[in-house]
Automatic annotation (TrEMBL):
This is Molybdopterin-dependent oxidoreductase. Gene3D superfamilies: Aldehyde oxidase/xanthine dehydrogenase, a/b hammerhead, Aldehyde oxidase/xanthine dehydrogenase, molybdopterin binding domain. Residues 1-15 have a biased composition (Low complexity). It comes from the Bacteria. SMART domains: Ald_Xan_dh_C (SM01008). It comes from Streptomyces solicavernae. Residues 1-31 are annotated as: Disordered. Residues 38-145 form the Aldehyde oxidase/xanthine dehydrogenase a/b hammerhead domain. Pfam families: Ald_Xan_dh_C, MoCoBD_1, MoCoBD_2. Coiled coil: none annotated.
Length: 798
């Protein structure tokens, strides 16, 4: 057996195999697709183990309070209860965890900092017994003042959410209740403003959203004979979980073995720890397998949300429409714990100018510690909030100048070679003007589609739908446009790499490739693409995808639109290394029989070794008889650097993605109801490795942006910091009845630095769909609408 482990930096070479069925560029079917739509797919909540216990978390009922006492005696006395744990029962010196700052306690100690914070754990032989036992734990709180906004967080006498901070960001912030602050200064915005013939200012409010994945947090922890634990869990980042779990269990990482179980959606909400540590603690304490499954109510408290934001913008333009300068201040509410807030701040600041050429900028973005629910990663990651604001500004400024709104954007659109506010050059195609042109050129949907032949109305096509609120009276059409920019991959100097183990062997007379990574398949279709890459590079039809676990090197997070780029790049790289080993075997076995083994460029196609001219030299099944080739290799994209803490300058991102939308809406101006008729989009994807999956990702991201525009918001009481609507009854997400036609036009302009020229594309459509819908509603109503989501009372003034 030939086995090696290597590290490679940079983009793998261009694709060499072009004729293998089921390879890249084809819309191959997803292996998990049929199982999911028929209800046969096993999600993490479906796991079962003989003699397992059920875990339950007791959470705080107040947002900020000292814990005076905890009495667990009644819970422990209940029949069927095997364990009750509090902070005092934690086994290791390390009792906190966190993605960037280890500020989150496994269980609250001394005080609670947000509504729903975990305080105690129960393990019992039935889920209802566990729930009832948790309810019998008595906690006495002494409530403290709550920090809920910037004014209360930064007041001179403000209560500190975290005292004694010693993290890497504290020396750069002006107040301990600021998690992180990132200024960006380029040019001289004050001087440039003097050249502006028109200046517009705006203040915008962006609400808090939930990722609303349909599969709740769940997992199964099984104690092992070696004193360790095997954890089966739905997550986005196995190795990051491992690095946070092992220290608080007091175990070396090799004794915490993690395997990905079926994931029912993620969108950033599974990047942080939820029930993982709790299940392991209970399993190790009881010596029995422990399963934890959140219900929907608990899920709203069990993971981070998207940061709500307050944004202040100023833009200027000359009378011929050229942007002169931009100033902005973005305040993100990070909630009680840091999560990914520092990275979200970096994204919000560096992408706050949008996909436009603006030489003179003055930018500040910051995230606050408050007693509101913790916020972290969600699809778009800081760029969503900024896009909502700067696109509203573009419409206002275009109107001031007297230009068409799309043409104003196209005039100022960045292109390849443009310098961003951070000083970084965009070094791959940036077709901003072209994607705007495409969405504008698309024919508009017909007017008054609700009218039927007999003069009546099909209410399904009207605002309010089947609630039958209108038959067309008071309904006005509006059209709006928006475009956005999103970075791809981890940024600011993070060592962003992935690992892939690829094996090639003969099974039952046929060459087979096995691909093993730790990539979390959360619905994005990564396992499909990995098989396509292996077929393309190794010339085989049979590809096995090994379950994702921590027995192979890290694949990083399934987030930041990075997995096809980075783990796909790692799979491609490992396949190329395996291919070279296979060809070495071929040269050793058959090299004396044909000169092409030594002189020609050799490919693996259709189960054979062939020359670049198509001549077959050997059958792979015969060549690999008795041989197994396996290589595990790391692969990295080009390095990035941290932004300067004072000026924000630096090459902080590896790649950018661009999407534009045109929204067509119909608004019942009397009742304040909105129906989105169409959300047309155009986006550059570099290379569509699986075209059907690309379209699906774009349509899914677009639909989430629609939800942000007119439906989705977690309501937090400003006086108590308690969540008011932790259910799908009161937190509304788009259904099929709310989702409009979404025509997709994608471009394939290759990024020369990326594998196959691809461009990470999962997040970009979430950015521009929201401001496009808002622009269309403004166009229909004439209202300014500087807050998202838009509610009926915002349109009717009631």
């Amino acid at each position: 057996m030939a086995g090696t482990k290597t590290t490679t930096t940079g983009a793998p070479t261009d694709v060499t195999q072009k004729h293998n069925k089921g390879g890249i560029g084809e819309s191959t079917l997803r292996p998990d697709g049929t199982l999911k739509v028929t209800g046969e797919f096993a999600y993490s909540s479906d796991m079962w183990h003989e003699d397992m216990l059920w875990g339950q978390t007791l959470r705080s009922t107040v947002a900020h309070a000292e814990i005076v006492s905890i009495d667990t005696s009644e819970a422990l006395a209940m029949a069927g209860v095997h364990a009750v744990l509090t902070y005092d029962d934690l086994p290791a010196e390390m009792k906190n965890y966190g993605l960037e700052i280890q500020d989150t306690p496994v269980l609250a100690h001394g005080k609670v900092r947000h509504h729903g914070e975990p305080v105690a754990l129960v393990a019992a032989d039935h889920p209802e017994t566990a729930r009832r036992a948790a309810a019998k734990i008595h906690i006495e709180y002494k409530e403290l003042p709550v920090i809920t906004d910037e004014a209360s967080a930064l007041a001179e006498d403000a209560v500190l959410v975290h005292e004694g901070r010693d993290d890497e960001y504290i020396e750069w912030v002006s107040h301990p209740n600021i998690v992180h602050n990132q200024p960006i200064i380029r040019g001289n915005a004050e001087e440039a403003a003097k050249k502006a013939d028109f200046v517009v200012k705006g203040e915008y409010t962006f609400g808090m959203q939930d990722q609303a994945f349909l599969g709740p947090e769940s997992g199964l922890a099984v104690p092992a004979e070696d004193g360790g634990v095997d954890l089966y869990v739905a997550t986005q980042w196995l190795h990051s979980d491992l690095e946070q779990i092992a220290p608080v269990l007091g175990l070396p990482e090799e004794k915490v073995r993690m395997t990905l179980s079926g994931v029912g959606g993620a969108f950033g909400g599974r990047e942080d720890i939820s029930m993982q540590i709790h299940a392991c603690l209970l399993a190790l304490r009881t010596g029995k397998p422990v399963k934890i499954v959140y219900n929907r109510f608990e899920s709203f408290f069990g993971h981070v949300h998207r940061h709500p934001a307050k944004l202040q913008y100023e833009h200027g333009a000359t009378k011929d429409g050229k942007l002169t300068h931009m100033k902005c201040r973005i305040v993100l509410d990070g909630g009680a714990y840091a999560s990914a807030s520092p990275a979200v701040v970096g994204n919000a600041s560096s992408l706050s100018a949008g996909p436009y050429v603006i030489d003179d900028v003055e930018i500040e973005a910051l995230a606050l510690y408050t007693n509101n629910p913790p916020c972290g990663a969600m699809r778009g990651f800081g760029a969503v909030q900024a896009c909502f604001a700067y696109e509203a500004q573009m419409d206002k400024l275009a109107d001031k100048v007297g230009m068409d709104r799309v043409e104003f954007r196209r005039l100022n659109a960045m292109e390849q070679g443009t310098l961003l506010p951070t000083g970084q050059s965009v070094d791959s195609p940036a077709p901003v003007a072209e994607i705007l042109r495409r969405v504008k050129a698309r024919p508009l949907p017909p007017e008054r589609q609700w009218e039927v032949a007999d003069g009546d109305a099909d209410v399904r096509e009207l605002p309010g739908g089947l609630s039958n609120t209108t038959h067309g009276e008071g309904v006005v059409r509006g059209v709006g446009y928006a475009v956005g920019i999103k970075n791809v991959g981890f940024s600011e100097g993070f060592d962003d790499y992935s690992t892939a183990k690829v094996r090639m062997e003969v099974i039952n007379g046929e060459p087979v490739a096995t691909v093993h990574t730790a990539m979390a398949e959360v619905g994005q279709g990564g396992i499909t693409v990995h098989a396509q890459i292996a077929r393309t590079e190794l010339g085989v039809q049979q590809v096995t995808i090994h379950p994702a676990d921590t027995q192979v090197g890290s694949a990083g997070s399934t987030s930041a639109s990075r997995q096809t780029y980075v783990t796909g790049g790692a799979v491609k790289n490992s396949c190329e290394l395996v291919r070279e080993k296979v060809l070495e075997i071929g040269r050793r076995k058959y090299g004396s029989y044909h000169p092409a083994w030594a002189t020609a460029e050799l490919l693996l196609e259709g189960g054979k070794v062939v020359t670049d001219g198509g001549e077959a030299l050997a059958d792979l099944a015969e060549l690999l008889e008795g041989e197994t080739v396996e290589i595990e290799a790391e692969w990295r994209h080009r390095p990035t650097v941290a932004f300067d803490k004072r000026t924000g300058q630096g090459n902080g991102h590896v790649q950018y993605s661009f999407a534009a939308h045109r929204a067509v809406v119909e608004v019942d101006t009397e009742l304040g109801l909105v129906k989105v008729i169409e959300l047309a989009t155009a986006q550059d994807v570099g290379k569509a490795l699986n075209p059907l999956s690309v379209v699906g990702q774009i349509q899914g991201g677009t639909t989430q942006g629609l939800g942000v525009a007119v439906m989705e918001e977690i309501i937090v009481d400003p006086k108590t910091a308690k969540v008011r609507n932790p259910s799908f009854t009161d937190y509304l997400i788009p259904t099929i009845l709310d989702t409009p036609t979404i025509p997709v036009d994608y471009l394939e302009l290759a990024d020369p630095h990326a594998p196959y020229g691809l461009r990470g594309m999962g997040e970009a459509p979430t950015l521009s769909s929201t401001p496009a819908v808002l622009a269309a509603i403004r166009n229909a109503t004439g209202l300014e609408l500087n807050k998202t989501p838009v509610r009926p009372e915002h349109l009717t003034g009631t």
